[in-house]
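Second attempt. The first submission of OBSCN protein had a stray character pasted in from the spreadsheet, which I only caught after the job came back as garbage. Lesson logged: always re-copy from the clean sequence file. Corrected sequence (86 aa) follows.
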Amino acid sequence: EPDVTIVSGLKDTAVFEGDDVTFRCQVSHENARDVEWKLQDVALQNNEMNEISVEKGKVHTLTLRKVTEQDNGTVTFRVGRHTSTA
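This time the job returned cleanly.
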């Protein structure tokens, strides 16, 4: 299985409290496994507050809904042994 790398990493983003924010990370191969999103070192799951999806097979997205001050911190995307943070 090919080593999946990060082609385009996360970008730092500032938003207002109550807004939604989306982070995108492009990887080198479709159907990447062993993918993880974290906020402040806490693993995120797909739920009503966090939307995790994949566009066109290679662009992994995380949308944080109605962010609060407590959501301030580092977002991390990991695929295999490669990571990107914002």
